[in-house]
Structures are given as C-alpha cells and as structure tokens.
Hints:
Serine Threonine Protein Phosphatase 5, Tetratricopeptide repeat, 2 domains, disordered N terminus, Ankyrin_rpt, repeat, ubiquitin-protein transferase activity, Ankyrin repeat domain-containing protein, ANK repeat
Amino acid sequence: xxxxxxxxxxxxxxxxxxxxxxxxxxxxxxxxxxxxxxxxxxxxxxxxxxxxxxxxxxxxxxxxxxxxxxxxxxxxxxxxxxxxxxxxxxxxxxxxxxxxxxxxxxxxxxxxxxxxxxxxxxxxxxxxxxxxxxxxxxxxxxxxxxxxxxxxxxxxxxxxxxxxxxxxxxxxxxxxxxxxxxxxxxxxxxxxxxxxxxxxxxxxxxxxxxxxxxxxxxxxxxxxxxxxxxxxxxxxxxxxxxxxxxxxx
Length: 249
C-alpha cells in the first residue's frame, strides 16, 4: 500500500514538473524518424511533450529524442537528454567533464541541453557543481539563459536570470537582429513572454524588426500560429511590421 502511494506521488510530481510552458503547436509536425530505435520510455517527458519542445519542423537542430547521442560522451548526453538525474550524479561522481561538448549537436553542453529541454533539477544540480552558465554552442547560444528562453521553462528562466541579471538585456539586439524577448515570442514560449514582461527592468521594445529575418515579435508569432502570444502582444500595442497594423492580418 505504501509503495503504491509513493509511486502515485512520484507520477504526480513528474507530471507537474513536465508540464509544458509554451504555446501548443497548431499544425501537426512531421513525424519523427524512429529508425534509430530510440527507447522513448527512457525519457522523463512524454513523446507529445518533447514534440512541443523540438521537432523536424521546429528546432530541428535541437531535437534530442530522435536518435542516440554520439561521440566519446554519448552516455553523458543521453542521460542529460533523457532527464536521468541519478545517472548524471553517478557520472559526475566518477569524474565526468561538465563542459564536454555534444559535437554532433552543435557543441551544446549538458547545462545547455538541460536548460533548453526543461529539467530544472538537472540545471540547478549542474550549476551547483560548477557548470559554466556562459557556455556557448556553434549556433546562437551565448549562455544558458538563451537556451532556457528558447525552451520556455519559466522555472529555469527565472533561476538563470537571477544569476545573469546584471548582464541580461531583453531588448539587446543579437547577431540576427532579434532580441531575447523576440526569441521567446516567435518560438511560442508563452509563459516566458509573460515572465519577461513582468521582470524586465526596462519596458520591452515590442516593435524591433529583424531585417535579416524580416520579422518582428508579432509577425513571427502570427506566422507560426502562436495566437495566444500574438493576442498578448496586440494587447500591449505591438505592430505587425508587414501590415502596419496591430493585428495578424
């Protein structure tokens, strides 16, 4: 009886912890290739939850559940991607390099992966063990907060923002002309958008336009079908730079 109660409590805890914090993808994504025989039961999150984080049509280069990790640290990255904190702790105890790069996936670190996928317990553990919160990858990550913002887990965003607050400007332009706020908006991370509105010390510039990508926060959210974010931006007065109107059309 006690074991059954404990099991039920564990399931409830994991279900709450795994809840997505971003807009639901409105179009059915391309089905994930399963030829690599990945056992999805090893992952903490359900298949449907992982599809909302990354899929062949959205963050294809950051998919983490479609094939086994590669390279000398494959077991390490598999543990991180699966959300296996016990195995992570075991490997760290045995001398695992926290700054190892997942070279088959743009040189992401374990902390970057955990921040993006949405494992708060793993993020906090790795940071306490000394993982570099400013580690980069070969794409567009310059610190763990960027990874977390792309992933959309607000608990992680809040935790890392408190560590990087003095060097974080949600309105600062990145190389592609986007701001970190725009990243949250066009990637459909609803709760991240709300968090930034509530916690940015400066008013958010809603109408920044990335000339390179030809999109603003509103036009990007509209084009990707993230209507809840689009409506929130419209309520705040955002303008669709492609129409000159505060609307999607």
